[in-house]
Write a structure and sequence with these properties.
three-stranded antiparallel sheet, alpha+beta, two-stranded parallel ribbon, DNA-binding, 158 residues
Length: 158
DNA sequence: AATCGTCGTTCTT
DNA sequence: AAGAACGACGATT
């Protein structure tokens, strides 16, 4: 489903269980179902919730409402990491180590990085608020430029 | 700057 | 099924 924003058109993928993926503008979709040219039915209003949430997130505010997220297709560790990400307030950052600890594996900082990279729903589940311990930005799936911009809009430049 | 410890995931046997 | 390789890390030297 196409979600137009001030920063371009994002693509959201829904399953019967909820929002399963979100892609930045101009990104080749790993999902085959992304080729929808006509908007599919939206019985739950998830699309409009997502549109609003994304607009707020891109403006540097925390979305007050999220659609249900479909994390069924992943491992438990990653779910715990992403769950931890949702607890980070807008305008704040955490280190990869802190996120790992929050997920119950205090020494798995590196693995936590892997989990962030595998996050199918960037921005809404804020993987961009996770930075390196040494003050470095760390990486970002859609390119470091996006990460910097997002943090800047939240006024959270470390 | 180079190295080593660490650990979940993914890729190879 | 088991082992090796690979990072969006972190701490040490």
């Amino acid at each position: 489903v196409a979600i137009p924003t001030a920063d371009g058109t994002f693509m959201a993928h829904f399953t019967p269980r909820g929002l399963a993926g979100l892609e930045f503008p101009g990104q080749a979709s790993p999902h085959p179902a992304a080729a929808w040219h006509t908007p599919p039915p939206d019985p739950h209003g998830w699309v409009s919730i997502t549109r609003t949430a994304l607009a707020r997130a891109l403006a540097g505010q925390s979305p007050d409402r999220l659609p249900p997220l479909d994390w069924s297709r992943t491992t438990s560790f990653r779910r715990r990491v992403w769950q931890a990400l949702l607890q980070i307030p807008a305008g704040q950052t955490r280190t990869y180590a802190a996120v790992a600890a929050e997920a119950g594996r205090p020494r798995a900082a590196r693995a936590a990085g892997g989990a962030c990279g595998a996050n199918p729903i960037p921005v809404l589940v804020p993987c961009h608020r996770v930075v390196a311990a040494g003050g470095g930005l760390g990486g970002f799936s859609a390119g470091p430029a996006w990460k910097a911009v997002l943090l800047q809009r939240e006024k959270a430049c470390p």
